[in-house]
Design goal:
Chains A, B: InterPro entries: Homeodomain-like_sf (IPR009057), HTH-type_TetR-like_transc_reg (IPR050109), HTH_TetR (IPR001647). The structure is a homodimer. Chain A is mainly α. Helices cover about 75% and strands about 0% of the residues of chain A. Chain A has one domain: Tetracycline Repressor, domain 2. Chain A is elongated and about 60 Å long. The first copy, chain A, starts with 9 loop residues before the first helix and ends with a helix.
């Protein structure tokens, strides 16, 4: 059989690299300029790609930006899953800190702009709702796994959900000003609380 | 002395009523159409006020929409403060539910549109940052009071802050779909948790 590498098509590689550049430029653009300032043309220029090539990959503006948020969300999930499982004292705090960083970077800012635009832009509505649900489920699954949470214990599922809701709220609080100092103390306190919920005493 | 009522100027009353109609229309407009779709002209029409009269009250678009969010936030605070202080079992749950409703109605939707627009619209930036800080402080103070929280106890301040961050996150989760059922369970669980934090056993 022909070795697998011999099957790689340099043209396909270039196409994949272009697609990736467009997705990353789209997320940065959404995070910085909001939906109103995010067009295919602006992203193509930022990515150094012709407008025609951009439209070949993403026929509509909605295609480009929903694909971009999905792509970056998947990358962030993969990074988190690749973290070595923390052990010992402070384990919950370490995991909670890692989860909360999902909501304080450019991905959350971009996703937020998309969610908010979807609340009034009809052509975004259903696609973004589906995407939000998918990212939400995936984040929850990852949180349960990283925390080693036993969801069969009453209240544990809701505690993990509430933690992620808090993460979203902390992300929002970080949108206009650097809220890092306050956030650190909130995260420390709720990590302690979560720890007692996850490891009930007999 | 002339009785107070005789001093009331019907022209001033009309002016105040016009102002109020504009503010309420502005919040509804922001919540439904986002910043991009919210102009003074659209709000004036919705309020049944001439564009000239609208501009007399609010010279700029930024004046109108920041004043609108501030006005409605003050009204909501006044309503919450007027609630009879709940007593007995389930008290914390009742208060937490009331606080969380701050984040699931049209006021939060309108404020969210304004915060998000302020992250990329320079002329909104500093005004909205100041407004957000003011509303945040006021909400925190109200939460502490309604919960009867003793912030001199270590961790209590951060617990209340985290609760309000969670409220913001729950509001965001409710933006595109009705998240009421899930929210109810999260609120019930975190109310139980908060209760144990606020009433430490000796």
């Amino acid at each position: 059989m022909t070795p697998r590498t011999a099957l790689r098509d340099p043209k396909q590689d270039r196409s994949r690299a272009t697609r990736r550049r467009l997705l990353e430029a789209a997320v940065a653009c959404l995070a910085e300029r909001g939906w109103a300032g995010s067009t295919v043309a602006v992203v193509a220029e930022r990515a150094g790609v012709s407008r025609g090539a951009a439209q070949h990959h993403f026929p509509t503006r909605e295609d480009l930006f929903t694909a971009a948020v999905e792509h970056v969300a998947e990358e962030r999930s993969a990074e988190l899953r690749a973290l070595p499982a923390p052990h010992g004292e402070g384990r919950v705090h370490t995991v909670v800190e890692a989860l909360i960083t999902l909501y304080t970077g450019p991905l959350f800012r971009a996703a937020l702009q998309l969610w908010v635009a979807a609340s009034y832009e009809e052509q975004l509505g259903s696609r973004v709702t589906a995407l939000e649900a998918k990212i939400g489920r995936e984040t929850h699954r990852m949180a349960v796994e990283l925390l080693g949470a036993d969801e069969s214990v009453p209240g544990v599922r809701e505690a993990v959900q509430g933690l992620l809701d808090m993460g979203r709220g902390l992300g929002l609080a970080n949108l206009l000003t650097d809220d890092g100092h306050r956030r650190e103390r909130v995260v420390a306190q709720w990590s302690r609380v979560l720890e007692t919920i996850l490891t009930p005493r007999d």
